[in-house]
Every structure is written in structure tokens, then in C-alpha cells.
Write a sequence for this structure.
């Protein structure tokens, strides 16, 4: 067992867990944050995506000990009921979520993408989201949602 | 009257969308019940054999485990689908790899995993077959034999005939033969199969990721020998299904319930990706053989089609998949004479099951590739060939169904080819290809897809829906139709809101729970929008009639007045509820024995165009651009409808050139996401979705089915384009670079078929194959 | 999740020296950096090493340093670090390119160059570029350091010269490829997140139409990341003619031994390797 302290969605948490516990399981099973999903457990699908120190990572591949002292953002830290994050709002409006299982990861990947490229080209979007598999949408509505978010941000400046 | 703007046809926001984008939506693995433990499955590691012993290895505290074998099944040892050949747990004979033999449950998931690995199954091997060819070989071992089947190793056959095809061969200018095949395809929903089961005096309850709560409900009744009212099934948020959660939840649902019964605790069973891929259903592999009589001017005179699918080890849904594949094998063309023989054979692979399109993508692949071969042989363009043979209003389909809707396939083809710049591109590619290592091509497929259950299926389903007003005066739709991404919740609420003249956000839809919702049929077969949607419309009308009859609601009213009237009604009568039951249209007839008549109440029609590039250095084909034009009746929600088409096209592109199940003696060898290749966002081309709307009388506000259609067209359109690009015929999908290489680098492997003949000399080539 | 995490230990001593002493004291310890290989193995129940020590966050390993003659990449540099580095983009575009191919963005944010090399998969994306740039590899242990040509690092299938207790410290790239023609192409199963079915990286210095210097390296051509010495030898000092290209393909085909596996076939791999080589030679 290791005791690990880190910042999760803006608050500090301390947990005891075996150090090789996957961050994914720590979030879902120890901390009951189930917005982060498991699609494969092998780094392929991206549905377990979270932001670790601001960088997009697959939480199924991060041993818990390695988040000691770090900052972690999950989908639960992005928006809330009365106040959707603009990315969430655009996914909702453009049809970016169908079955919704890839959606939390996809939204965090979008968040990371827009941080790096506030006005991404289509190719940047295609590459930036290519680690997040979606079986429902064929990605087209997701691209629209990303572009729409970027447009709104640009207009809001 | 309020709500003047049309709700139907508007991009109403996804009903459960907010919960999904926030990450609040609870899928099965997100749920936790007090006292809950975990279940797992011990499976066969061999394709076929007789079990001689089950050994529970050292080092595991077995006394802490709940262990279930077939002996613990209180009812019948079967997962009922159409027949009862499929055992819930193996009793003696294993018929496929990954077949469930023992179930284990324990509170500690990690220990459970070790326990599964510690069980060994000893067995005497029995001979096995793994492909259609092996199954039908004259000396094949008999691996499946049942009175209910049509012959040893054959689950089901159909014979569909129109006219007298024997008579056409003698007079045909050309007789053109071709054989086409398709591989298995994994549904690849991102959420694996999973359920939670609970058992008590009151009966058995299963929550799960699924499409058809009443299928599992039925399966539980048999496996537990319990009456209907003691079985309860609740669908929770489902992370994709595509057919993969049509029949399989009956298996995992019964398993978890058995563990719950024996342990006395709630049991969660959620597969991981490797188990889900290896053990659950996939699209049926298929083989289609065509023999077609054609006149000099490119008219189809008649044809014989032999369609075979590999059903895997048990019947499951194969007869129904075969049926849809059979009917769609003739395409949107006029066949004066046609005979289709179809069969579903048994192999020792895990049972193949439902997957979007349900047999149609397989037979349409064969037909649309064959149409291009015919065009080439006759010496006309693929476009011209289709134009000369399209079904027209007033014509009859291969099942003898009169086309009553004013469809205009010629017009659709013209539009799709114009939108895609087809003619200009063909000319351009013909010029640039000879000197470029990248060969480009453009091709298309024209097809149709029937909405609803086949033939008398809807009559048998006898679906029922209800609408009930809740304590806030809001109508709640009660249906067993499930949401798993396609938009069921949203479109049904749109239909109800529009019919009731209230606002979309004032309509609710109940969680599918067999204790609460009536059986509105399974969520399959492109039937929800059209059939269930229509019933929701009817039930809404019935609700209004009832309110008006009570004098509480005027002819015209505002949403507030509706709400007041509804609450007043409830106060007076205790509840306000209306229902609607399916009534077969009286002009629809179907003969199940002759396979003749009105196969579906309505069809969606489509022309899909694919532009490809094949790199002759890497032999990789890539789809560069895609146009999907379809006539689907009224589009209920443009954003959702586009999403359905784009998603289906993406799966179709995967089917065509990426997604291969690698089999080794019935075992899926590439059962990891890293080895089963589905397209990423970096692999898909722009997908241009175009609709035409010819309202159908059978659906709400004129809607028809849309869910499966987009899966049918991409594969043949893409392979047609690849032939245009390379000049080489490929007749199997998925078509991987290795396959392209095999032929491009070895011209001797390019099989001699009628397309290799000069049109002028391509007279009747009758090879004498009798289907 | 097919492993029991309670069966594993992981420590993070926090400095390179502390890690090296721990490794020296306990030969059963296995380093874990970004975890993008080892955590996959854990997930599928195939992680045989049970005692792990974390290299994540070690500043001593995560650096990219520009010296006048060489560019030094710490083993802990992630693919994202490599992609963002201006000097690499300018002088070692093949490496910038292969880093951008190494799995998804999430994977690149975690995966390290050292992990890619140490994992020693024949399909790994970055080693061919390093080989084409004539890289050296610097190893470190509690007892000291050694540097050797990277070409000598891989010994066989998943076998390297790394000794127990030894870590990859850095990769040294000589900064003298500005004039070279450079080529890299990966043939994967799809455009993103694909394991290479075959890849070829190449650098060549052409002077008066003659090949003055050439390095060819590939992935999935043999049991390890490999330099194609025989093919290089054939081409060196010659002018590229159609005949030479044909000969080069023949030598290449005899020099490599790809396999049939669930991803591809040997004959496809040979043919495509020859095609890629030809594409490069045609560009010279
Ligand atoms: C979804 C996915 C996609 C991927 N795609 C690609 C791809 O396209 N191309 C590709 O090449 N790879 C790919 N990989 C593999 C992987 O990301 C790379 O090999 C990565 O470089 C591994 O680095 P790491 O730091 O994460 O390794 P770890 O998992 O931490 O370690 C890997 C191995 O290296 C050892 N090790 C790590 N650092 C050192 C060191 N400094 N000294 C000695 N030994 C060390 C470890 O002990 C272990 O044996 C992919 C992985 C995933 C999960
Ligand atoms: S669950 Fe982590 S990438 Fe799929
Ligand atoms: S919305 Fe279902 S997987 Fe993306």
C-alpha cells in the first residue's frame, strides 16, 4: 500500500492504494468518479482519458504512484449540471455524443487539443483525436463540435 | 394551438445528451449495489470435444467461491433464441472455443481472475469444422444435427423464386458468374457486455447493457423455470450495441443471474475487451454466388443466387439474419426471373449474431460487386447497367412486392453522381493513373433496406406502447425500445411532443424496465423510428382522444392547458394512460412458405459513392471521399440522422478495408483493440450525407428506418472504386493491403472470369455449377 | 484488468542516483518510465516482473540538450518533448516524424524514447530513425557509464546489451545531417495508432550523383530494429541507376527476414520494403 496525495478536479485527495493500481481504477473504484470509462485497458481506445498535469493521458496506463503530487482533471472537473463547459455544450448541440461511452474521453482530448491549437485545422483535429475511438459517430459530428467550440472561443475573445 | 414550429424534423437536443457529455450517465460498470460480488466465466480452450473432467487447481480458496455449472440451472439448460440448441452452460459436449462451462463469483475481482485461470477442463477432442466450405464438404463431420434444422450442419435454408429461371439461360446473350465473400466483423461497441443480477424470493432481476430487454426476459423464464412476472430486466445506459447486444445479453444475463441465485448476493459480470471480442457474437461470414443471364443491351433476364452464411456453433439468430440477407440479395433491381437458395451452416466458431444490416450487407456486397462485373462484361458503364434495371414504381421486387412509393432511383443516381463529381473524376483518373504510383478510382453502389421485421414478423411481435402522464402532468413514453446511441429517446419524444402539441422538453421516456414498460418489441431491424414511432404517435392521439372525451381538453389548447387538463384527469380517474398496439396494414401480405409477398412495409433507398486511392508501393487502399445519398422518408431529426449515416458509413469503411477477424481453429486470434483495426479519426474521409424525403404512410410523420441502411453500401462501393483504380477485381471484404498485394504483384493470381473476356466474345460461359 | 496489483510493488526514489543504487542492490527491479508498455502488459495479465521502480519524473533523464556537435536526448524524453523540440524538427526531421507516429497523443505524452528502445520491439517506430542518424547510446549504472554505437545495442528478439542494473541514459545524435537526403515511411494498419507492419528510414549523402554515405534502417524486417548493412554496402560509392535499384532490392530481400503474424505476411513485408527502398532511391 502507498499513500498518495494529489489534486483531483481542484481539490486535494489522499488515498491508500497499491502503488501499481491503475489511475483508472483509483478514480472509478476508490474515488467513485465513474465518468472516466474503460474501453480496452490497453491504451487504445482513449475512453479512460484524463488530464495529468494538463497533458492528455490514458488513465488505464498510469500507475497510481506516478500521480503523487500531480494535478488530475477528469470529466467531472470540467463542467456541471447548470453550467456545461463550452466543449460539452457543442458536443451536445452538434451531435458529438451518441452512445456516450467515448464522450468523456473525447471531450478531454478536445480540451487538450484546443489548448495546443485554439483554432485547429481539420487535420489537427483528426490527429488530435485519433487516440479516442468512437464506434458510433464516424467522428464527423465530433469534428463539427470541436470546430464550433473553437469558433465560439474566437468570437468570445 | 402552441408549438407551431415543427418539433419533428428539428435538431432537438439528444434526450440524455447532457448526462452523457457531463460524464454523469451511468453505464452498467458504473453501478454498485450493496453486498455486490463479481462473476466470471471459465470457457473452453478447444473447439469441439467431450468434457471428461473439470479440475479446480491448487492455491485458490475454493470454499469462498460461488461455483455454478449446468447442474445448478433450475430450469432448462438453454439460451432460447429461435431454437433451444444453445446451452446456457456446457453439459458434456463443447461445440466452440470460448464456450462457457463453469461460472465463478467472488467479492475480489483480482482473485476471481486467478481462480478462472486455475480451472482446467479435460476433454476428448472431436473433429471440428471452421468455414462454410468445411461445413458443407461431403465428408464433413456432422457437428450439428437437429430435427428443427434442415439437414446435418445446416441450420436453415430458404428458397425464393420468381418466374422460371430455367428458361432464361438458353436465350441469354451473356451468362455471368461470380463468387463473393465477406468476413466476420466485430461490433466493437466501446462498452463491453455487462450485467448485474439479483435473485430473491420475488424472482430474478437483471440490469444490463442491452438492446432487447424482453429477449433476456424470455431467456430467464426458461433457464430459471420462472413465470413471467418473476423475471425482471432493466436496461441501463448502453455504450453502443450495433446488434452485438441483441442476443448476447441473454447469455451473460442468465449467467450472472445463476451466480446471484447460488450466492444470494447481487453479482456483476462485465467482460473485458479480450473476453468480449473472443467470446461474443460477430457479423456472419458469408459467400454469395451469382449466375446471371443478361441481354446484349444490359437487361437482367434472370439469375440464380446462392447465399450462404456461417452461423457458428448454434442457431441463435442465424435464420433471421439469413432471411434478411436473402431478401436483400436481389437489390433494387427488376428481375423477371430469379431463384435464390440460401443456407445458414454450422461451424465450430462461437455463434455469429446480429450486427447492423443483419445479413443484408453481406448479400448486397455480392450483388453490387457482381453488377460491376456484369457491366464490364456487357461493355456498358456501371451507371448505365443500373439505370437499365432499376426498380420503378409499379414494378415488383424479387419477392413479388409491388412498389407503391414514388421512388426515383434514376434521379437519385444522377444526383449522387453529380454531387460527387463522378464523371469528371472518372475522366481525370483515367488520365492520371497510368503514370502515377497512386491509382485513384471512384465507384458506387445502389441498394435498398427494408424497415421493420421481415414478412409477418411485426404481426407476430404484436408490439404495444403506452403513454402515461406523471405527477407533474408530463407525458411519459413507456416502450421497451432502448437507447444505445441511435437516438431512440429523442425521436420518440419528438414524435410524442409534436402529436400532443406540447414542448419537446415536456415529454419523458421511461427507463426500459420489463416491470413497467410494455413489450414494444426488440430494438433492431431499423424498426424503432417507423414501427414504434408510429405506435407512439397513435398512443399520443389516443391520449388526446381520452382527454378530450372527458371534456377536460379543448380542441385547441396551450401546453399549459394540456398540463392542467392532464392533472385534472388524473385527479378524477387516478391515472391517465393510453396505449397503442401494432396493427398490420391490411394491404401487406407475406407467405412464409413460398417466401413471397410484401417483405417489408417500406424500404429506404440509397446511392453511395466512394472515392479511393490505392498506393501501389504499399498496396494500401484509402477512402478519400464519400457521398451517401438516401431516401429515408421524413427525417425526424437531421443531426441524429446524419450521425446515424456517418457512423454506419464509418463501420462500412472498416468492413471494407480494415476490420479483419483473424481466426485460428475457431478462435479469434486478434482479440485486442491493438490488433483488430477499426478506423480512427485520422482514417476516415469526409462523409457527405444527403437526404431525400418521400414520406411513407407506415411511419410517424412519414419516417422510415435508417439505422442499418448505411452499413450496406460502403463495402461494395469501395471495392467497386478499387477495381476502377487498379483494374483488378477483388471479391472479398475486408480487403487488406496484403490481399491487394497478392493480386497486384502476381498477375497470375488474377482469376479468369467473364470480365476478362472481351465483350464481343463473352458469349454464354456456362460452367455448369448447380447451386 | 487481468492482474492483481497487490502482487506488484513500485517505488519512486526520486533521483537517478537513488534509482541506480536501488537497481544495483536488487537485480529483480524493473524500471518503469511512461508505462505505456508495462501497464499494457499488466492489464492483459502478462507482466512477469513484479518489482518495479519508477523513472517517471526524473529530471536527470528528461532533457534534450543541444551541444555544438551533438544533440543529446535523455531516455526520459517523451515523444511530445521530441515533437516540440525545434532543433529536432530542423535537423532530425525523421525523428520528429517517427515520434509523431508513436501511438496517440496521449501515448506520446507519456511514452519515452528510452522505453521505446529498451522495450526492443522489432516494430518500434523510433529506432530506425536513430539508426539512420548514426546515433550512439549512453548507458548508466551504479558503477559508471558507457557509450556505444546504437547499431550495436540490439542483439536479437527483445535482447539488448543492457546489463542488470543498467539503464539507458541518453541518445547522442551527431549534428551533421543537414546535407543528407532523408526518408522515412511507416506502413501501418491504419493512419494513427498503428503498429508498423514495416517501416524504412534512410539518410544518404549524394555528391556528384554518387552515393557518398548511406544509412538504411527498418522496423519489422527482422527480429530487432536493424541497419541494412548489405544493402548499404552495395549502394555506397555508386550512382543510382535502374540496374542498381534492381540489385538493391534483391540484396535487401535477402538481407531481411520478416515473419508472418496476425498483422501481415512475410512476403508482403519483403515486397513493400523493396518498394520503399526504391521510392527512396528514386528520390536521390
Ligand atoms: C496505444 C499504444 C500505442 C502505441 N503505439 C506505438 C507506436 O505506434 N510505435 C511504437 O514504437 N510504440 C508504440 N507503443 C509502445 C510504447 O508507447 C513505446 O514503446 C514507448 O516508447 C514506451 O515507453 P515508456 O516510457 O512508456 O515505457 P515503459 O512501459 O515504462 O517501459 C518499457 C520498457 O522499457 C524499459 N525502460 C524504460 N525506460 C528505460 C530506461 N531508461 N533504461 C532501461 N530500460 C528502460 C522498461 O523496463 C520496460 O521494459 C504504443 C503503446 C500503446 C499503449
Ligand atoms: S481503457 Fe484506457 S485507453 Fe482504452
Ligand atoms: S458515441 Fe458511442 S462510441 Fe462514441
Amino acid at each position: 500500500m502507498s499513500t498518495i496525495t494529489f489534486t483531483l478536479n481542484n481539490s486535494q485527495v489522499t488515498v491508500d492504494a497499491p502503488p501499481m493500481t491503475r489511475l483508472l481504477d483509483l478514480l472509478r473504484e476508490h474515488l467513485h468518479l465513474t465518468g472516466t470509462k474503460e474501453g480496452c485497458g490497453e491504451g487504445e481506445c482513449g475512453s479512460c482519458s484524463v488530464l495529468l498535469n494538463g497533458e492528455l493521458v490514458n488513465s488505464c496506463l498510469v500507475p497510481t504512484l506516478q500521480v503523487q503530487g500531480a494535478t488530475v482533471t477528469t470529466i467531472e472537473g470540467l463542467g456541471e449540471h447548470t453550467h456545461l463547459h463550452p466543449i460539452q455544450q457543442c458536443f451536445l448541440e452538434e451531435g458529438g455524443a451518441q452512445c456516450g461511452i467515448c464522450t468523456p474521453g473525447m471531450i478531454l482530448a478536445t480540451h487538450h487539443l484546443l489548448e495546443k491549437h485554439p483554432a485547429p485545422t481539420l487535420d489537427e483535429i483528426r490527429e488530435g483525436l485519433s487516440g479516442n475511438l468512437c464506434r458510433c459517430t464516424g467522428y464527423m459530428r465530433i469534428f463539427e463540435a470541436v470546430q464550433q467550440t473553437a469558433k465560439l472561443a474566437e468570437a468570445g475573445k | 394551438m402552441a408549438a407551431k414550429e415543427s418539433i419533428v424534423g428539428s435538431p432537438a437536443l439528444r434526450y440524455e445528451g447532457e448526462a452523457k457529455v457531463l460524464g454523469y450517465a451511468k453505464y452498467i460498470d458504473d453501478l454498485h449495489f450493496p453486498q455486490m460480488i463479481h462473476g466470471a466465466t471459465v470457457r473452453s480452450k478447444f473447439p469441439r470435444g467431450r468434457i471428461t473432467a473439470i479440475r479446480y487447481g491448487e492455491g485458490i480458496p475454493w470454499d469462498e467461491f460461488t461455483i455454478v455449472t449446468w447442474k445448478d440451472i433450475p430450469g432448462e439448460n438453454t439460451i432460447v433464441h429461435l431454437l433451444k440448441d444453445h446451452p446456457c452452460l456446457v453439459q458434456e459436449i463443447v461445440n466452440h472455443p470460448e464456450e462457457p462451462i463453469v461460472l465463478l463469483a467472488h467479492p475480489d475481482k483480482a482473485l476471481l481472475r486467478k481462480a478462472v485461470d486455475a480451472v482446467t477442463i479435460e476433454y476428448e477432442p472431436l473433429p471440428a469444422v471452421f468455414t462454410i466450405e468445411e461445413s458443407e464438404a461431403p465428408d464433413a463431420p456432422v457437428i450439428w444435427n437437429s430435427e428443427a434444422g434442415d439437414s446435418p450442419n445446416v441450420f436453415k435454408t430458404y428458397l425464393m423464386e420468381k418466374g422460371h429461371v430455367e428458361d432464361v439461360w438458353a436465350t441469354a446473350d451473356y451468362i455471368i458468374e461470380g463468387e463473393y465473400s465477406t468476413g466476420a466483423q466485430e461490433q466493437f461497441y466501446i462498452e463491453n457486455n455487462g450485467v448485474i443480477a439479483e435473485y430473491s424470493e420475488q424472482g430474478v432481476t437483471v440490469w444490463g447493457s442491452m438492446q432487447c430487454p424482453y429477449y433476456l426476459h424470455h431467456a430467464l423464464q426458461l433457464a430459471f423455470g420462472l413465470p413471467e412476472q418473476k423475471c425482471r430486466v432493466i436496461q441501463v445506459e448502453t455504450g453502443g450495441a450495433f446488434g452485438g447486444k441483441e442476443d448476447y445479453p441473454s447469455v451473460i444475463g442468465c449467467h450472472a443471474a445463476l451466480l446471484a441465485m447460488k450466492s444470494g448476493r447481487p453479482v456483476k459480470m462485465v467482460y473485458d475487451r479480450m473476453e468480449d471480442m473472443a467470446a461474443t457474437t460477430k457479423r456472419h461470414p458469408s459467400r454469395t454466388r451469382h449466375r446471371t443471364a443478361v441481354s446484349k443491351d444490359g437487361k437482367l433476364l434472370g439469375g440464380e443466387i446462392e447465399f450462404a452464411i456461417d452461423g457458428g456453433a448454434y442457431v441463435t439468430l442465424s435464420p433471421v439474419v439469413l432471411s434478411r440477407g436473402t431478401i436483400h440479395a436481389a437489390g433494387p433491381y427488376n428481375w423477371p426471373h430469379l431463384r435464390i437458395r440460401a443456407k445458414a451452416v454450422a461451424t465450430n466458431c462461437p455463434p455469429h449474431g446480429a450486427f447492423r444490416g443483419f445479413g443484408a450487407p453481406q448479400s448486397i456486397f455480392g450483388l453490387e460487386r457482381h453488377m460491376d462485373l456484369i457491366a464490364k462484361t456487357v461493355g456498358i458503364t456501371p451507371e448505365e447497367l443500373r439505370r437499365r434495371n432499376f426498380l420503378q414504381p409499379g414494378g415488383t421486387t424479387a419477392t413479388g412486392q409491388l412498389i407503391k412509393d414514388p421512388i426515383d432511383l434514376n434521379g437519385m443516381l444522377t444526383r449522387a453522381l453529380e454531387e460527387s463529381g463522378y464523371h469528371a473524376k472518372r475522366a481525370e483518373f483515367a488520365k492520371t493513373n497510368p503514370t502515377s504510383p497512386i491509382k485513384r478510382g471512384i465507384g458506387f453502389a445502389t441498394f435498398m433496406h427494408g424497415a421493420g421485421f421481415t414478412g409477418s414478423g411485426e404481426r407476430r411481435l404484436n408490439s404495444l406502447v403506452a403513454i402515461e402522464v406523471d405527477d407533474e402532468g408530463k407525458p411519459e413514453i413507456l416502450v421497451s425500445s432502448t437507447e444505445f446511441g441511435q437516438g431512440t429517446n429523442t425521436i420518440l419524444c419528438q414524435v410524442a411532443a409534436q402529436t400532443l402539441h406540447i414542448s419537446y422538453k415536456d415529454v419523458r421516456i421511461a427507463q426500459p424496465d420489463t416491470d413497467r414498460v410494455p413489450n414494444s418489441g426488440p430494438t433492431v431491424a431499423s424498426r424503432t423510428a417507423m414501427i414504434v414511432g408510429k405506435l407512439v404517435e397513435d398512443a399520443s392521439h389516443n391520449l388526446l382522444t381520452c382527454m378530450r372525451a372527458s371534456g377536460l381538453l379543448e380542441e385547441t389548447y396551450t401546453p399549459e392547458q394540456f398540463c392542467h387538463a392532464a392533472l385534472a384527469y388524473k385527479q378524477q380517474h387516478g391515472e391517465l394512460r393510453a396505449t397503442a398496439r401494432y396493427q398490420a396494414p391490411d394491404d401487406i401480405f407475406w407467405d412464409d412458405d413460398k417466401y413471397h409477398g410484401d417483405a417489408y412495409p417500406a424500404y429506404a433507398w440509397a446511392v453511395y459513392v466512394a472515392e479511393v486511392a490505392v498506393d501501389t508501393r504499399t498496396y494500401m487502399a484509402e477512402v478519400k471521399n464519400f457521398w451517401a445519398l438516401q431516401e429515408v422518408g421524413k427525417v425526424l431529426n437531421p443531426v441524429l440522422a446524419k450521425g446515424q449515416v456517418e457512423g454506419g458509413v464509418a463501420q462500412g469503411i472498416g468492413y471494407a478495408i480494415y476490420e479483419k477477424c483473424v481466426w485460428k481453429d475457431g478462435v479469434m486470434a486478434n482479440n485486442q483493440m491493438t490488433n483488430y483495426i477499426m478506423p480512427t479519426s485520422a482514417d476516415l474521409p469526409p462523409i457527405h450525407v444527403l437526404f431525400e424525403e418521400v414520406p411513407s404512410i407506415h411511419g410517424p410523420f412519414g419516417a422510415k428506418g435508417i439505422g442499418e441502411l448505411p452499413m450496406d453500401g460502403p463495402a461494395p462501393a469501395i471495392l467497386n472504386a478499387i477495381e476502377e483504380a487498379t483494374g483488378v477485381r477483388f471479391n472479398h471484404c475486408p480487403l487488406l493491403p496484403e490481399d491487394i498485394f497478392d493480386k497486384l504483384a502476381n498477375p497470375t493470381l488474377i482469376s479468369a472470369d467473364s470480365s476478362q473476356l472481351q465483350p464481343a466474345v463473352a458469349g454464354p460461359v456456362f460452367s455448369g455449377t448447380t447451386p | 484488468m487481468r492482474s492483481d496489483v497487490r502482487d506488484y510493488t513500485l517505488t519512486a526514489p526520486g533521483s537517478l542516483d537513488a534509482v541506480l543504487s536501488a537497481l544495483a542492490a536488487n537485480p529483480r527491479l524493473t524500471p518503469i518510465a511512461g508505462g505505456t508498455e508495462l501497464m499494457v502488459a499488466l492489464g492483459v495479465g502478462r507482466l512477469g516482473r513484479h518489482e518495479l521502480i519508477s523513472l517517471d519524473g526524473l529530471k536527470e533523464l528528461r532533457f534534450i540538450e543541444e551541444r555544438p556537435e551533438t544533440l543529446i536526448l535523455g531516455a526520459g524524453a517523451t515523444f511530445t518533448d521530441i515533437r516540440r523540440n525545434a532543433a529536432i524538427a530542423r535537423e532530425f526531421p525523421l525523428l520528429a516524424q517517427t515520434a509523431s507516429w508513436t501511438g496517440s497523443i496521449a501515448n506520446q505524452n507519456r511514452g519515452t524514447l528510452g522505453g521505446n528502445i529498451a522495450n526492443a520491439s522489432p516494430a518500434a517506430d523510433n529506432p530506425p530513425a536513430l539508426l539512420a542518424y548514426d546515433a550512439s547510446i549512453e548507458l548508466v549504472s551504479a558503477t559508471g557509464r558507457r557509450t556505444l554505437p546504437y547499431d550495436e545495442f540490439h542483439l536479437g528478439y527483445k535482447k539488448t546489451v543492457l546489463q542488470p542494473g543498467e539503464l539507458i541514459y541518453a541518445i547522442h545524435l551527431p549534428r551533421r545531417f543537414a546535407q543528407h537526403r532523408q526518408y522515412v515511411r511507416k506502413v501501418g494498419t491504419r493512419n494513427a495508432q498503428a503498429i508498423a507492419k514495416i517501416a524504412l528510414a534512410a539518410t544518404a549523402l549524394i555528391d556528384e550523383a554518387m552515393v557518398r554515405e548511406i544509412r538504411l534502417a527498418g522496423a519489422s524486417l527482422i527480429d530487432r530494429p536493424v541497419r541494412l548493412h548489405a544493402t548499404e554496402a552495395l549502394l555506397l560509392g555508386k550512382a543510382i541507376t535502374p540496374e542498381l535499384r534492381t540489385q538493391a532490392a534483391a540484396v535487401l530481400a535477402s538481407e531481411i527476414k520478416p515473419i508472418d503474424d496476425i498483422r501481415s505476411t512475410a512476403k508482403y513485408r519483403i515486397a513493400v520494403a523493396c518498394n520503399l527502398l526504391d521510392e527512396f532511391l528514386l528520390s536521390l
